[in-house]
Amino acid sequence: MLSWRRWLSGAAMLVVAAVLLDPQGARAEPGVPEPPNGLLSDRGRGDLSDADRDFATKVRLAGLWEIPAGEMAQQRSDDPRIQSIGREIAAQHKILDKFVRDAAKKLDIALPDEPNADQQGWLGEMRDAEGTDFDKVYIDRLRAAHGKIFPAIATIRASTRNDTIRKLAQRTNQFVMTHMTLLESSGIVNFAALPTAPPPAAGNGGSANAVRVSAAANSETPSPITGTSMLLIVAAVLASVAGTVFAMRRLSQAPRRRYRRPQGRYFES
């Protein structure tokens, strides 16, 4: 018979296996999965399009002006929150800039070394502003820029044939979403002034798709037990059995008390 230690060891191994096999085990918050970037290859393989090259250039340009903009936010803003946002975005862009330079070197893409004319103009606006005026210019300019590149990232991620650009697009997407969230946390983003999304094209089946999605969401059909769920159930059962075996073993090894006949009589005649 296996010892209780082996029972517990086996149960623990099953629990660990269940966690490792769960594709949604690592989450930014409950119910929200993080993309498994480690599953993407980065070998510079696949056709490289002009759109891919342009995308790498745009990522490089973003860092060339947002890094100095973040440094100015730490110096010219009086708001600790804006200073913190600028510090974080600048630091993250330094990391993203290394990613794009590494990708460009692998794919032989020529990258710019200074911001374009528009970006230099935005930096000039920030140099001429201080305090709350600076805060507004900084937040508005960066939020607008991130909003423009956001859909471009999705297009490249979905269409590129090159694995290095694909991974760069996925990483860039995570940076941009983080930066938009940080900028919006300032509380001074004018959402009403942001560009509106184009209306959906007629005849694309959007309404029918919405009905199908709604019907699926409201379905009362119970979801099947997944392999991960089964592993967790088995692990729980084994852990319970192991606990019972351990308790019985402890009881069987406890020292027995020797019976002694009581002295005297219990009942009076």
Automatic annotation (TrEMBL):
<feature type="region of interest" description="Disordered">
    <location>
        <begin position="27"/>
        <end position="46"/>
    </location>
</feature>
<keyword id="KW-0812">Transmembrane</keyword>
<protein>
    <recommendedName>
        <fullName>DUF4142 domain-containing protein</fullName>
    </recommendedName>
</protein>
<keyword id="KW-0472">Membrane</keyword>
<dbReference type="Pfam" id="PF13628">
    <property type="entry name" value="DUF4142"/>
</dbReference>
<keyword id="KW-1133">Transmembrane helix</keyword>
<keyword id="KW-0732">Signal</keyword>
<feature type="transmembrane region" description="Helical">
    <location>
        <begin position="230"/>
        <end position="251"/>
    </location>
</feature>
<feature type="signal peptide">
    <location>
        <begin position="1"/>
        <end position="28"/>
    </location>
</feature>
<dbReference type="InterPro" id="IPR012347">
    <property type="entry name" value="Ferritin-like"/>
</dbReference>
<feature type="domain" description="DUF4142">
    <location>
        <begin position="51"/>
        <end position="181"/>
    </location>
</feature>
<dbReference type="InterPro" id="IPR025419">
    <property type="entry name" value="DUF4142"/>
</dbReference>
